[in-house]
């Protein structure tokens, strides 16, 4: 597909940069210049918008330059654009629409800007980016640091080759490779900064080994119920220590295979065991991101999902464990709720204990929590003001 390079892009690009500055995502002149010099539309020749078709099926509809104004309006807006679907789950339902699971996207520009600012690069820094995707973030890094200092890896050879062509057309030639980004970029270390645009259950040892002592790792750590961006410093003992950032953002999970995500094995749901009244409601959990993060510390390995009753269609928020234990509360409840559970009755009680702790400690924001990974692989979170620690699993 031939993508128009500049028609209509400069004014839209200028407006996007101004918007990112207005909301505080771009805070420095250096990154303002980088964003202003990289046309995003080169890196998003097509994208998929989620919608419900006339049969009630959720599908991903492809958008491309055929409708140039709508395409560029989307590309130069502050929104995430899905750019690839998992071929193992994608099924074509009409000429321009598919079902399936997204596997790559062009990230929300404001999130990218905040992360790049948080990365605190300096002239001469060598950077490893895990998750090349469209190549847009790599182009921004090249614009800021120069091609020879930027290294980017993605699990999908097809995405890497497409990104290579887009980067070249924009005038950038960073070091690119296809492979499991959780193994870093062997043979090119050490790096001063490592940034990941995929989530990992813990910071991989390879990233620590390939980031110089005193260097920074910025990544999304996923802990089941919730996760978040951590800003970490590598020490001489091959440990990383830091905190969750004020920038809140989540990414697709890292994959070791280019074509699909691993499927988690779960025990069947336990039979319903009872119900009770509780003060912690689904509304409370949904409304407070820092609390969900704390809940993930308290219930490592747990999950938070939406449940729809087969008979009534009523929707609930459900906590669940891999052993089949579950507890759910209706979405609509406000002040108190009726919790239904299967297996142990303790699951929602543990959530209530976390809720009580969070409120008693002044409802701390996410940047009041630290994260560390020891050289032996153990990782944990802690409450920075008082040192309360929660071991994590992965």
TrEMBL record:
<dbReference type="InterPro" id="IPR000682">
    <property type="entry name" value="PCMT"/>
</dbReference>
<protein>
    <recommendedName>
        <fullName>Protein-L-isoaspartate O-methyltransferase</fullName>
        <ecNumber>2.1.1.77</ecNumber>
    </recommendedName>
</protein>
<keyword id="KW-0489">Methyltransferase</keyword>
<dbReference type="GO" id="GO:0005737">
    <property type="term" value="C:cytoplasm"/>
</dbReference>
<comment type="similarity">
    <text>Belongs to the methyltransferase superfamily. L-isoaspartyl/D-aspartyl protein methyltransferase family.</text>
</comment>
<dbReference type="GO" id="GO:0032259">
    <property type="term" value="P:methylation"/>
</dbReference>
<dbReference type="Pfam" id="PF01135">
    <property type="entry name" value="PCMT"/>
</dbReference>
<dbReference type="GO" id="GO:0004719">
    <property type="term" value="F:protein-L-isoaspartate (D-aspartate) O-methyltransferase activity"/>
</dbReference>
<keyword id="KW-0963">Cytoplasm</keyword>
<keyword id="KW-0949">S-adenosyl-L-methionine</keyword>
<dbReference type="InterPro" id="IPR029063">
    <property type="entry name" value="SAM-dependent_MTases_sf"/>
</dbReference>
<keyword id="KW-0808">Transferase</keyword>
